[in-house]
Design goal:
2 domains; 4 helices; about 170 residues; alpha+beta; 6-stranded antiparallel beta barrel; Monooxygenase
């Protein structure tokens, strides 16, 4: 093994390790809503083309380390794509309606998306309707015509994430 083979092996391992935080995040959150599938498909395509080159070089007696690390990267990117597809099932994310009820009986309804697994409410379309002199009374999501209360604040302080729950 030459110094260049060692550097290739070390660099390839470091690059492969770079995929592990993304894999860990997907597995912990069971969510891929902010991950671009196209990015990983293009990475997979590029690595696959380099894999053809690496195998050819290895067959001709060189670039074994490149072939090893490239194969590892291809496997990890493929795994990330599989995770994205598994956690982006159509049944997992649904369109819903976010409703705010004011004390004066008016109701503001805007579209949103919900994760049926984590019960997270996101992509709430902002509405700039003013309840007038009355205060906000209640918030809920409408899922298939059923109302579910929303936990959007705690002690009057808005939460960073909004979740619905079954009463």
């Amino acid at each position: 093994m030459t110094i260049f083979d060692f550097l290739q092996l070390l660099g390839g391992i470091i690059l492969a390790i770079g995929y592990f935080p993304q894999i860990k995040q997907i597995l912990e959150t069971e969510s891929c809503k902010d991950i671009n599938l196209k990015t990983y498909i293009l990475l997979c395509l590029g690595i696959s083309l380099m894999e053809v080159y690496a195998v050819n070089q290895w067959i001709h007696g060189t670039a074994l380390m490149f072939c090893v690390t490239n194969t590892l990267s291809l496997i990890l990117v493929g795994y990330i794509i599989a995770l994205i597809l598994a956690f982006r099932k159509e049944t997992n994310i649904k369109d819903a309606l976010y409703a705010t009820k004011c004390e004066n009986s008016s109701v503001i309804i805007t579209p949103c998306k919900i994760n049926m697994t984590t019960k997270e409410v996101f992509d709430i379309v902002p509405c700039f309707y003013d309840c007038g002199s009355s205060m906000m009374e209640d918030e809920f999501v409408l899922i298939d015509e059923d109302e579910f209360p929303v936990k959007a604040s705690e002690n009057g302080v808005p939460l960073a994430d909004t979740y619905w729950y079954e009463s």
